[in-house]
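Continuing the batch. This is chain 6 of the set; chains 1 through 5 are on the previous pages. Same settings as before, nothing changed between runs. Recording input and output for traceability.
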Amino acid sequence: MQHNRLLFISLVSSTLVVLYKIFEWQIIEILTPFLMPLLWLLNIWFFLCYYITIRNQSSQK
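Output for chain 6:
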């Protein structure tokens, strides 16, 4: 029973990976317009936090 379950999980996992690799670029093209603004916001937020941290450290000296 345990071996059958493990085999089934392995087959499903492998199938999902193969399907993902087949449709990878289509998925990326669909998700990119939604994810890029978030990535840009994260990038700007990181830059601002870094800038504020450096500025505060230099003003304390």
